[in-house]
Amino acid sequence: MLITDEYRAEQAALHAKGNYGTAALQYGQLVWGLLNSTGATSILDYGCGSKRSLLQALNPPETIAYEGYDPAIPDYAGAPLPAELVCCIDVLEHIEPTLLDNVLDHLAELCDPYGFFTVHSGPAVKVLSDGRNAHLTQQGPDWWLPRFKQRFEVYDMQPIQSGFVVVVRSLQSATQLSRPSKLRALIAPESSKSASAAVIGKDSSN
Q1: What CA–CA distance (Å, rounded) separates 184 from 177?
Q2: Under 8 Å CB-to-CB from 46, ≥6 apart: which residues?
Q3: The whole model's pTM is what?
Q4: Largest distance between two CA atoms of the chain
Q5: Residue 39: which region, alpha, beta or left (left: phi > 0; alpha: psi -120 to 50)?
Q6: Rounded CA gap, 79 and 72, in Å?
Q7: Over the stretch 53-92, which tens digit does the pLDDT of each residue have?
């Protein structure tokens, strides 16, 4: 199980308000950098939300196969296919803690070979109907990285304003692609290195 029926309803209600699940809009350039550096031609947007914000940010050509998956959105709740780059942007902190291992295992099955994950480490602005903060897990890299390393080779990790981002390779994948560019180069290009990691990761707090 990846999500309970009760929590699926909670997430669907948040998405229905129309201002939820938009963090991916700020990551289009970075994801394009990963696609270009690896040669990946398929992308899975894991936890895409009702707006599929990453698709809007990328506007990919027909040569890039995009799939959105979100178990709380009926149109995108079908079983996803593995992809050469799986993006999971500001999703993991929302997962029910008792099902987090299941979701990480699912991601490891789908990353073929790479994953790009962003994690917000603080509280969200939004709350659930029972009063809980919408970010059910509020932890930093020291908590998350051991869990990632059980399933992935962690190629790169960079702190950002709201938490951190990682590029990983699934330990289950035999697919060979070029190694991804370093996140620092993608987050802070030569023309704006002075901005450093704050260029990305503004506090969306969904």
Answers
A1: 20
A2: 69, 80, 86, 87, 88, 91, 107, 110
A3: 0.91
A4: 47
A5: left
A6: 12
A7: 999 999 999 999 999 999 999 999 999 999 999 999 999 9
